[in-house]
Request: fold
Amino acid sequence: MCGKAKNCFFGIMKIYGWILCILFCVSGDRSMAQDNGPMLAEKYKHYRQRLTSYYMVVGAGPGESIPAGIRNLRSWDNGDAVALHWGDATLYLGWYLGVLATEYHLQKAAGGSTDVTARELYYALHALDRLDSVAETKWNLPGKLDGLLVRDDVPADFISLHPSLNGRLTHTPPWLARTGSPGMVSRLYSDHSESRPHAFSQDQICHLLMGLALTKKFADTDMQFVITDRHAETHSERYNAQAWAQAI
Reply:
């Protein structure tokens, strides 16, 4: 996988690294935050937008709110860099939870709006429950919430179901490694779309526990966000993120 990872434009771990680094700088060093605050905030916004635009779809459906690990991976059959790849998806989900929890904490401390972050955190926790509830069914057993997770539930037609993943992109790239620009994707690799399911491994649970610990520490017992349903009606969704993280 290391060789294949080098053949993508940008890895999701770089995005998480920048996001958490920026969060640390803004919250940990007041002088640096004062001097570089606008620049860091703009960079943070840029990487967050790339994460939710090009690596995932936020929501409660199959495959949603689970970040992909690699975009523009070279396909294993013809070498074209047109694949979106979910591999150790629960590992990346743990980092995503950590980003959301710390982001929520900083937004609340600054008196800003937390609605978007609370919404994303809700669906990320929901994704964990979803991966738990369907795990046993992969081995023809009744599904239940017992801590056994599959790595993802991304269906083979996920990209066609969510054209927003390609947004306004119009090119399928040759090698553009230095531009940092994403290219269109037309296929995917995920554990769920393969014939043989895989349960998560110990290295993945370590990263997942990190995200859950940050959620328990920095999220609230009474979180809410506004949902607009298919009839264009709005209502407020409330949940206890700390208890949810503890239960998982």
User: Anything to note?
Assistant: Residues 1-10 have pLDDT under 50 and may be disordered. The radius of gyration is 18 Å. The helical segments are 2-5, 12-28, 30-54, 89-109, 115-133, 158-161, 202-218, 241-247. The beta strands are 10-11, 70-73, 83-85, 187-189, 223-228, 234-239.
